[in-house]
Amino acid sequence: MVKLIKLDTAEQLKEFMHLAWECPDDVGVHTVDDQIADAKSVLGLMSLDYTKPVKVVTESERFMKLLDKWIAKE
Fold this sequence. Notes:
By secondary structure, the protein is an alpha+beta fold. It has a single domain, classed as HPr-like (Histidine-containing Protein, Chain: A). The protein is built from 3 helices and 4 strands, in the order E-H-E-E-H-E-H. The protein has a 4-stranded antiparallel beta sheet with strand order 1-4-2-3. The longest helix is centred in the first third of the chain and has 13 residues. The mean pLDDT is 95.
């Protein structure tokens, strides 16, 4: 499953990372510039550009539902 989200603050990124840590499945984050990071990696997440929406990829339907508050407006 893929969902496009927009994280605007460091606090939102922190919350996203904690949700990812609690998810039993792998969670990947992809930028529009084709950078990829593991959502459970602090360094990986900090290296990405969040000025544009990012794609979140995982097989966890439950995790994806938790991201609805950050759905990117297209």
